[in-house]
Amino acid sequence: MVKNNYPSRRQAKKQTNWFLVISSVLIAVLLVVAGLYSVFGVSRTVQQTNGSSVTKSSKQATDATQSKDAKGLPDVSPKDWQLLLVNRDNKSKELNPEIADVDGVSVDARIAKNVKEFLAAAQEIDPSYHLISGYRSVAYQTELYNSYVQQEMAADPSLTESQAEKKVQTYSQPPGASEHQTGLAIDMSTVDSLNEADPDTVAKVKKLAPKYGFVLRFPDGKTSSTGVGYEDWHFRYVGKESAEYMIEHNLTLEEYLVLLKENAKRDDVLI
């Protein structure tokens, strides 16, 4: 008799039962796995979404803070001619600006009208206001500076030339470092001596200066920024918008230019 390989009815039934049990277990396991994936998958998605939202919000907050720091900044460039920086750290060769005469003093022709109007406004506060100095060539500044050094040494023979220069630099700039060579600076006062005008009168003139595009260039308490002590007669043309901003925020030209450059860098990054 040929023996077949088919299971008996009883064996088939038994195998079927085992098959159902195993299938049920597998289905249960799959359902559990699917449930876990669903819970943790959604949670991970939420975390990723929330993480993206937090990152985005953080960036927006940073951008908002930066915008607030630069809020109200005039639409000017630190490279504009009105904002030319000349000091001991930024010396310049002869600039040879086009010159115009205002009340016997030479200034850059581009600001002659502003100087006339500013002088007239100052004279309404005190009629004795007058222009003392304006444009000076580097050659003239060299002669002036050297004469000051000689005067200091004559007044105190114990001084070396180097020591005399240090004293001179508290009230005059070395050749190439003076703003007067730009033609954008004027010395204007009621007297011909530095820091001897009435402080209240100076304060009034300082307050109206931005209307004509000027600022008091070396204000009190800003020597660490400008490198120059307080001067009550030295006014610098920077343009009306810049002057108003600088006065409102108590900025020197050096500080203002730093702010403009930082803002320009932020704009480049955002672009």
What does this entry look like structurally?
The protein has 271 residues and is of the alpha+beta class. Helix content is 52%, strand content 9%. It is built from eight helices and six strands, in the order H-E-E-H-E-H-H-E-H-E-H-E-H-H. It has a four-stranded antiparallel sheet. Strands 1-2 form a two-stranded antiparallel ribbon. A hairpin with a 2-residue loop joins strand 1 and strand 2 (105-108). Helix 2 (112-125) crosses helix 5 (199-208) and helix 3 crosses helix 4. It is globular and about 105 Å long. Mean pLDDT is 82; it is low at 1-16 and 39-69.
What's a concise summary of this model?
The chain has 271 residues and is α+β, with helices and mostly antiparallel strands. It contains eight helices and six strands. α2 packs across α5 (199-208) and α3 packs across α4 (161-168).
- Overall form: globular
The end-to-end span amounts to 91 Å
Oligomer: single chain
Q: Which fold name corresponds to the CATH topology of the largest domain?
A: Muramoyl-pentapeptide Carboxypeptidase, domain 2
Radius of gyration: 39 Å
User: In terms of per-residue confidence, which ranges show pLDDT below 50 for 5 or more consecutive residues?
Assistant: 1-16, 39-69
Number of domains: 2
Extended strand count: 6
Strand order of the largest sheet: 3-4-6-5
Indicate the proportion of strand residues.
5-15%
The main β sheet shows up as: 4 strands, antiparallel
The CATH architecture of the largest domain can be given as 2-Layer Sandwich
Fraction in helix: 40-55%
Number of helices: 8
Q: Given the helix and strand composition, which structural class is it?
A: alpha+beta
What is the CATH class name of the largest domain?
A: Alpha Beta
Helix and strand element order: HEEHEHHEHEHEHH
If you average the pLDDT, what whole number results? 82
